[in-house]
Amino acid sequence: QVQLVESGGGLVQAGGSLRLSCQASKTFFRAAAMGWYRQAPGKQRELVASITSTGTTNYADSVKGRFTISRDYAKITVYLQMNSLHSEDTAVYYCNGGGRGTEPGDYWGQGTQVTVSS
After folding, report:
1. Which tens digit of pLDDT belongs to each residue from 27-50?
2. Which residues contact 30 (CB under 8 A, 6 or more apart)?
3. Which helix (H) or strand (E) holds 104?
């Protein structure tokens, strides 16, 4: 069974930084594309960033230059470093595993709240 366990959300002031972490099952993580999605109140869930098993990354236009996705195979963890946060970044952030292109995979973390105060 694939498990994705997230951590790192919280409350931060506008302009600040947060780092989200998502630890996955070891066997799954080696070959899976991983991604971060977010869902703000009243809005649809959207892709924030993704990274393939070979390290190719993709970002939503709204976060390019501010967010960085990375993965550590030794720690079986994917990270989302978020800098220069805006109030519009406030959302529940979800880790996703097994996606292809812009389509999410079948596996989701429990979600972590990120709140940016202006």
Report:
1. 888 889 999 999 999 999 999 999
2. 53, 73
3. none
